[in-house]
Amino acid sequence: MPGVAEQQTMRVYLRVRPFSREELSDHEDQGCVVIENSQAVTLNAPKGSATMKSSEKGIGMSLHKFSFSQIFGPEKTQSELFENTVKSQMYDFLDGKNALIFSYGVTNAGKTYTIQGTPKEPGILPRVLDATFHYIEGHQYEGMDLKPYLRNDAQYLDPDQVKQERSAKAAIFASVKEVREKLGFLRRIFLGSLHFTLWPFVVLCISPLVLASNPTEAGSSQFTLWVAFFEIYNECVYDLLQSSLCTKSKKRASLRVCDDGAGNAYVKDLRWINIQTLGEACKLLQFGNKNRSAAATKMNQSSSRSHSIFTMKLLKIDGSAVKWVSEFSLCDLAGSERCNKTKTFGERLKEAGNINNSLLILGKCITALRNNQTDRMKNSYIPFRESKLTKLFQAVFCGKGKASMIVNINQCASTYDETLHVMKFSAVAKQVVQVIPDKPLESLAPCLVGRDGKPLLRNGGIDSEALESYLSEEELLDEEEEADMSLLPQNELMNVIESMRTKLLAERRRNLVQEMEIRKEMGDAMLQQIMESEELRSRQIEELKESYQEKMENTFEMYKDAIKEHAYQSAMNNLEDDYVPLDEFIAEQEKVEVGLLISCLIRDGFMEKSADLEALQMKADDQVRQFQMSHTKINPI
Ligand SMILES: Nc1ncnc2c1ncn2[C@@H]1O[C@H](COP(=O)(O)OP(=O)(O)OP(=O)(O)O)[C@@H](O)[C@H]1O
Fold first, then answer.
1. Which pLDDT tens digit goes with each residue over 382-392?
2. In a mutational test of the pocket of ligand 1, which residue from 15, 16, 17, 293 has the highest number of ligand atoms less than 8 Å from its CB?
3. For the whole model, what pTM was predicted?
4. Coiled coil where (predicted)?
């Protein structure tokens, strides 16, 4: 039915890349991936894989079957892939609708090959660009004064702004020229590893790649194409078309993801370049790729750890009005391998965490979308705003475009477990139902509208009345939403700043009073608590003291009794031992008395003799002294 949006499940394609020579010599070919038909594939767990070990323990299976919208085996060419996957979305884009392509898979599975390709086999991106230029040929808008604005809008540029645009573009192209000369030399040396930076030169020779017929009903309509190229690394957005690169001491400037006021996220200050030919597009891609790998080298990271997004915006112009703006984004996702596999630490761990976080959130969003759609009773929260990646593409998942996913896998036995993980993720993605608009959406109209419905941009300028209703102050204050204040004209901005300053002062005062109150309350409560615990402690000590005193006294009494008992027992024992009959005692006594008498007599005799001896001794001493004195007189020296 015309005007009614179409519904279909998300297209999820599988691309299986061929083995490399090294992989074959490393015996990676163990029949892990078996393509049954154009839509079904079987995965057989190889020996030694975690999946096989689990299945041997009776947990899980060693064989998994998956189905896809279409499967492209190793023998399929880039052209066949394009024709059967992206081409229909490319026509949608040329017809004013939004399109998004994700390439998903582990590192080295062929994601970049699919999106960008090689010199001989250009990927999806050069093919879409080529077809677009072929389509708009003869209907190109020559001026550079109509530029994409916010997420879905366009704005007129004044002559000065146009000048700036031209010089920014010229600066990029000048630097690409230099690179091209250097690459000419490098190409001879490293032809294989530089594939993605070299394809532009070859594409130019084999163009046209895709034949998209000119718009029959275009009439006097004109088209202009603008492109941007950026990457999301560690949840930070970096512009790959900004010539100023980071140095080791200086960090790369990251860009903010803002809300355009209509719920659409966009990258603020992202550089959009107007391109007129496929050659120009190729140069930009080359410039961005160089920027990406240079930044990665400087930061000691691998470019496969970031999500790179190439976005094209096509503006259809009728007279002086922009009829619609359509967007085509190709997103080369970071390798999906999990943290434990790569064994990352410190910065690397953080990096892996963020990459996994973005992919994890993407997975959560897809799962929540699927669950909400399969069970109408369910209305789970979809965490689009929890990562930059999903925030940016929320609109496409919510009916403002069509998303599809190309899942890339290799067939290597050593990466089987990760490949299985990728397949399980895609199986969920395949069940997501999308509401696809059958005509360019109203929200894609050239003018941004305020909350009262008035267009924000009128005759290329900003309507200040409409603007007032565009961003409420609450929204301006809401950092989470990151509303873009630079949308406001200068006088409005001054008013907003003034009112915000007053609000801020009042808020600070209120906060200060509140803080003092809270501090006092907390202080009182703490003091009370300390006093209570102090009291409790002294009570406990007192009780303990009393109980010890009592115990001591008891013990003392116990010992006293024991000693008394012991003394009595000892006395009784001694009494028994020392008992002598009376007549024996008397006889003994008499014996003792006689003995005493004898000893007295002896003693008296002894005393007498001792006195004599003493007198004799004294006499002898006197004689010695006298002799000494006389001797001294004779020998005075
Ligand atoms: N279908 C294919 N046919 C032939 N060669 C392929 C194919 N797919 C990938 N390759 C080759 O395999 C290698 C790895 O591919 P690619 O660099 O695209 O992987 P990736 O998934 O983008 O890796 P990373 O995540 O590290 O960027 C490249 O040398 C590429 O040329």
1. 888 888 999 99
2. 17
3. 0.67
4. 531-565
